[in-house]
From TrEMBL:
Keywords: Glycosyltransferase, Transferase
Phylogenetic lineage: unclassified sequences, metagenomes, ecological metagenomes
One MF annotation (Gene Ontology) recorded for this entry: glycosyltransferase activity
SUPFAM superfamilies linked: PRTase-like (SSF53271)
Protein name listed in UniProt: Phosphoribosyltransferase domain-containing protein
Annotated organism of origin: marine metagenome
Domain Phosphoribosyltransferase: residue ranges: 8-150
Stored PANTHER family: HYPOXANTHINE PHOSPHORIBOSYLTRANSFERASE, HYPOXANTHINE-GUANINE PHOSPHORIBOSYLTRANSFERASE
C-alpha cells in the first residue's frame, strides 16, 4: 500500500485552485453543501471565499454509514457539493438522486443544477466531478490518501519520523510512528 500524506498547505492551495476553476467556469452556486466528514473543511473554506451560505450534510457510504435528508430550498437553483475525494463516485451519484430524484425512475422535475467539487478524484471511477485538483489511479495503484483533518495525530509534521518527507511515507514508517491514535 502506498500512503500519501496530504498536507494542510497543499489542501489550502488546492481549495484556492477549486475556487479559481469555479469562478472561471462562471458557475455561481446559491449554496455550498459539504459532505461530512471530508468535505466540511474545504466546503467551509469555499463558502467563506465566495461569501455563500454553507450547509453540512452527513452522507457517508463507508465511515459511519448514514444518509441525512437535505433538499435544497426552492431558491437554491444552483448547488455546489464538496467532498475531499471522489473515490467510487457513489456518494456524488446518490447526492444527485437525493436532490433531483432517482435516475432509474422518472426523475422529479427539478430546476436545481447540482455540480460537484473535490480535492482528489480517483480517475478509475465512472463518475467525473465538475471540479477537481488532483487525480490518481487509486484502485490499481493501491493508494491511501491521509487527509490532514483525519490523521493529524500521525502526520509526519506531528511525529518524529527521521528522514521522511512530508509527502509520501511507507507502511513501515507509519507503523513505527511515536504517536498512536487514541
Amino acid at each position: 500500500m502506498k500512503y500519501i500524506w496530504y498536507s494542510w498547505k497543499d489542501m489550502m492551495l488546492d481549495v484556492n485552485a477549486l475556487v479559481r476553476q469555479l469562478v472561471l467556469s462562471d458557475y455561481k452556486p446559491a449554496v455550498i453543501v459539504g459532505i461530512a466528514r471530508g468535505g466540511l473543511t474545504p466546503g467551509v473554506m469555499i463558502s467563506h471565499w465566495l461569501n455563500l451560505p454553507f450547509k453540512p450534510i452527513h452522507a457517508s457510504l463507508r465511515d459511519f454509514p448514514h444518509w441525512e435528508t437535505y433538499l435544497p430550498k426552492p431558491t437554491d437553483d444552483k448547488v455546489l457539493v464538496v467532498d475531499d475525494i471522489c473515490d467510487s463516485g457513489e456518494t456524488f451519484l446518490k447526492m444527485t438522486d437525493h436532490i433531483n430524484g432517482p435516475r432509474e425512475k422518472s426523475p422529479m422535475i427539478s430546476n436545481t443544477e447540482v455540480r460537484f467539487a473535490t480535492l482528489w478524484w480517483n480517475n478509475e471511477c465512472d463518475f467525473k466531478p465538475h471540479y477537481w485538483v488532483r487525480d490518481c489511479a487509486k484502485d490499481s495503484g493501491k493508494i491511501w490518501i491521509h487527509f490532514p483533518w483525519e490523521a493529524w495525530w500521525s502526520s509526519p509534521l506531528h511525529n518524529n519520523f527521521e528522514n521522511v518527507s512530508e509527502g509520501e511515507i511507507n507502511e513501515e514508517n507509519f507503523r513505527h510512528s511515536n504517536i498512536r491514535r487514541p
